[in-house]
Amino acid sequence: MSDDESLLELARSTAHEAAVLIRDLRPEGRVDVAATKTSPTDAVTDVDTAAEQLIRDRLGAVRPDDGFVGEEGERQSGSSGVDWVIDPIDGTVNFVYGVPAYAVSIGIEVDGVARAGVVVDVPLGIEYSGLLGVGAWRRDHAEGPATRLRAASSSDLSQALIATGFGYDPAQRARQAAAVGIMITRIRDIRRFGSAALDLCSLASGRIDGYVEEGLQPWDRAAGVLIAREAGAIVSGLDSDEPDERLVVAATPGLFDAFRTLVAECGF
Predict the structure, then answer these.
(1) Domains of the chain
(2) CA distances in angstroms from 9 to 86, 174, 211, listed in the order given
(3) What is the DSSP string of 115-142?
(4) CB 187 within 8 A of CB 162
(5) How far apart are CA 98 and CA 176, in angstroms?
């Protein structure tokens, strides 16, 4: 087993353990919000915090010299060159309201390069994983057989199903809504699932044809971008090859150039 494979196996087992914790701790009905971050609608729950602590504890016990970049905790520098990029609950608002679309996301970077990633759909227990240069897979549960992921072969932008998301700042949301209002006249339809990690895994699975979102942090996109790319999708920023906080643009190879041009024309 290669070093990357060993790191991915550790990420897989840890992500599933965190998913079990989240399912066990979630009460019936709506979940209380413990705090907010960038705006009153950007929620944090006690379960987010507990799940991230579990992930850090499990990974740190095995690899104490690694670094951590997590949504809920402070960045921790390491000396090994390996960084774990963690979102304990991607889709926290869905989690709060009981909408079954939220996930544990763990990305692995080695010397600044994304090498592996895993996303576990918490309500369904489905796992998506990817390994740089090797491929991406889906498992219906932790011990299930792995099925290779392939992005769709779609090439007609007018028939494309596109996913997107919205930020938490009202002014930003207004700009994004205006851009989506233009885009929806040029494609088949828009979907807004509420989890960037699951959006990118949906692209990897062939369920959608493209995805665009502004304002994603490293923990939002680390694992999902790698999985989508390893499934054959193209992922970039607006004017660069690498996605960033400014914008993530992703699509099937047959759509990508036209889609990125459309994204710019719509004013994202």
Answers:
(1) 3-148 (3.30.540.10), 157-266 (3.40.190.80)
(2) 15, 41, 28
(3) EEEEEEETTT--EEEEETTTEEEEESST
(4) yes
(5) 25
Distance between CA atoms of residues 194 and 216, nearest Å: 12
**Per residue in 6-47, pLDDT tens?**
999 999 999 999 999 999 999 888 887 765 555 555 567 889
For strand 161-164 and strand 127-131, is the pairing parallel, antiparallel, or unpaired? Answer: unpaired
Rounded to a whole number of angstroms, the distance between the first and last alpha carbons of the chain is 42
Neighbouring-strand partners of residue 67: 83
Phi, psi of 252 (to 5 degrees): -65, 155
Q: Are 7 and 108 in contact (CB under 8 A)?
A: yes
Sign of CA dihedral 187, 220, 150, 265: positive
Cα Rg for the chain, rounded, in angstroms? Answer: 18
Q: State the Cα–Cα distance between residues 259 and 245, nearest whole angstrom.
A: 19
